[in-house]
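INFO worker-7 received task bundle
INFO bundle size: 2
INFO processing item 0
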Amino acid sequence: MQGPPTPVPPPVPASSVVNVLTYHNDNARTGQQLNETVLTPSNVNAAMFGKLFVISVDGKVDAQPLYAAAISIGGSLHNVLIVATEHDSVYAFDADTGAALWHDTLLLPGETPSDDHGCIQVTPEIGVTGTPVIDVNAGPHGSVYAVAMSKNAGGEYLQRLHALDITSGAEEFGGPQAIQATFPGSGDNSSGGNVIFDPGQYKARPGLLLINGIVYISWGSHCDIRPYTGWIMGYGENTLTQVTVLDVAPNGDEASFWNAGAGPAADANGNIFALLANGTFDTTLNAGGFPDQGDFGNSFVRISTANHQLATADYFTPFNVVAENSVDEDLGSGGALLVPDLTDGGGHTRHLAVGAGKDAHIYVVDRDNMGKFNPAGNGNVYQDIPGALAGSVFSMPAYFQGVIYYGAVGDTMKAFPFSNALLASSPSSQSTNIFPFPGATPSISANGTSNGIVWAVENGNVAVLHAYDAANLSRELYNSNQAAGGRDQFGVGNKFITPTIANGKVYVGTTNGIGVFGLLGH
């Protein structure tokens, strides 16, 4: 670990800090952190702000770093940074100094991380890919939940759910729990009337979701290597026992959860929203307007969790789903965001969600009536905005003050405002720089409604952290290549990473560590 070039301030008292306990800050996946009192558009510049230090770890950091404030470890309070790696490690660091607090390997004796299955998407090894989730009230001290993939000496692939004590890394609740599942169906890898989950065919690519005491895990594949289908599973957070399972293509194939690492979103009523990858979609609908075989490939879905049981409750599917599926042009490359309640021109409250994928359309759905499928066109969806983005989406947006921020492939970072609960078809502002593959997933810091900053990481041989004025993206406040002599360069780009902002610092994952940024000389 490189030491900080300047003295690092002591931890800020818990009353003035914020937790980041799940992917993109909240279960709506807005990416906004509205309690940032240190970083402002006036002090985030190359003269006052920059790299403080880099924390080294033992593998790629594809999961978003998480932050838990004021945790008592060893008799002292620490703001704790949780970092998971593809080498099957979970670390806890002091978020202010970078000092190691604990390190836990999720491998059992004789195991290694999984190989990459001949797929370049997560390589050279697969361990912890999806962002963990933290419940600071679980167990005696708070718990970190993570899914780890491994391979034993006999060549068997395993997936396990771990619950780790946030103060020590010790396994909790009798874990880890081996992940197995079946679901009624005749689709890929089925036998005797059930589809069987094969741990070797999947990776827990999306972030974990915790709602109402259940940890939900959703699964992507290794490239498009069949057999695979679309699994989501729920496990009790205090028992690690499997509570519920759903396959969204049980009588077909593919339709998995990729989402560029974005966790499924959830509303206050426990409904889960997600974008599905290409796969079988039954264009023959039943009397309720649902696919007659229960296959929802390339759809925007609402999944009910009533009585802790998963069930597809509503959906939207583009009219040209068959054509898109045939050329791998799916929605599931992006993540879903739930928009805070808006009022339309008629005074009605709208519950909306936003998503985009490889076809570069921005789809806005009414969460109460998503639109289902109409082969004649997309007029049944709340809004379909083609042409707003210059490239495909392999990321997810962020939200702040009535504006959606998107970073598509080969495109600028763009701001799309809502007006009367309708999203603009052209951006109100955009960055001057273009983001290469896979685009960027922005995060927002602000102090309530003021001092909004959009943070985004540019993938490349030299990763670049960008900061923009949220009110005008053409005003770049800072990027990590501005300072002379490479002062703020922090590592090789990592395509999945989402920046985390807390307590005056920005944390960015790389292929072998975490870059930590903040005000210099404080």
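INFO item 0 finished
INFO processing item 1
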Amino acid sequence: MKRVVLCLLVLLILAGGGGTLFASGSSSSNAPAAASQTKTPVGQYPIDTDVTLRYWVQLHANISPNYTNLGDTPFYKELFKRTGVKISFEHPPSNAVSEAYNVMLASGDLPDIIEYNFTIYPGGPEKAIYDEIILKLNDVIDKFAPNLKARLKSNSQWDKLVKTDDGSYYVFPFIRGDPKLLYTQGLMMRKDWLDDLGLQPPQTIQEWHDVLVAFRDKKGATAPFTMAWSNRGRMFMPGFGILNEMFISADDKKVHFGPMENGYRRWLETMAQWYKEGLIDKDVMTVTAAQINTKMSTNVSGAAVGSIQSGMGLWTTTARPNNPRYMITALQYPVLNRNDKLVYSVATQPYAADSAAISATSKNAEIAARFLDFGYGTLGNLVYNFGTEGESYTMRNNQPFYTPFIMGGTDKKWPLAQAIGAWARGNMAGPFIQDPRYIDQYYDQPEQTAALSTFALQGAENFMLPASVSPTQAESREYASIINEINTYTAERASRWVLGTDPINDTTWNEYVSALRRMNIDRAIAIQNAALDRFNKR
């Protein structure tokens, strides 16, 4: 009955043009069938089964240029052989994943496995279990997933991240298995220009200003610093002691909202001044990734926010044939004063919420769980991260190394990201623990390897609010209505201030903070603090 009510509600919402769903129901044990579906002992592979699982998952951009179905990739052919399980994949349109997800839920015809972000389900994962969309996995993991069970037992932080406040496990998670995997994007600068000008890499905000002035005046850069406005949280904010979102303060270990802290005002004033001086790309509000690539691989820009692979790697590969001295260096976020200690950084979450859940209606929960559990074992770790031994990787001194075939882009001469993506999932999310040994090879330029160390800031990830910190079912709607309005408002005001459309002074700042309070920002912060308290007690 609960799922009938849910489906009717979703259909009504979709008919009205909305994309958010809410439902109600009564609690349920949400347990799988007790009868075993195979004679193969738990933990052994391949499994003797005739079951074909239905698996709903988005086709990643590393795959879609070359394959229309994951089942055709060398990786999944190897996985089918290793596990003995057959999969029928269902891929939503890449430009309408959320819409397809809602339509799937509304249809009532759920596949066995759904790979999606259930932390954003209204009411959180516990509500998705309550609504009989996904299965509560506690019993399933105990019975059928010894590899995942052992992984979570060995790491209490991972365990805390992948269950609800009520202690319910709900996915076979994607976890970045090493801190170096959390820091793959940040500030970058033309090292060859610094050398030409006899300048050292800047470490303070003032030094950054002076270097950008030199790039403008002595190198003719018309957009000395460029970046996508949507990524403005990486635009020097940590050096001002704030993040562009809810974050955990190092001072009181409580949740604060970055865009109303005093450091945010100082950041706005600084960026507005730099924009006025022509140090920030005049098109910062609209510049595209392709335009940033062009500006950084020519002489239009000398610094940017970028990823180690799609930024530094791409720019260098593009520019170096015409300029052998071209070099990009990664820089840590600058501080205000030389003696200041940098506390905050912008890290990727250790637990990526796009993970694999088993649907509550699946008649194949045991086989689904055992198939997914393969990725958390020793062999599964190698298959997921590196692919097929002897083809996509070889072992040397007990360490896996991608073969020249993969590093050369296969016989198709694909980009490395696509070559790895076809043979493994190491450079994408999925139901496994990401191995740091993959990324040491993924970045084939010395400056890329150095960037991993430069970007990393020990402990900084602890000040970012984990994705699995969740309001209660009752609080979630209230929080969403508050924060959505506030995020729209803060983004608009920030753009007007940085562009110089509005002045920044005591009057405009106080009016802005007052407006946030009228929009109930204090209530939103209180909700997140309560959620953080519950998370810490898991």
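INFO item 1 finished
INFO post-check item 1: The first strand starts at residue 52 and ends at 56.
INFO post-check item 1: Residues 7-28 have pLDDT under 50 and may be disordered.
INFO worker-7 idle
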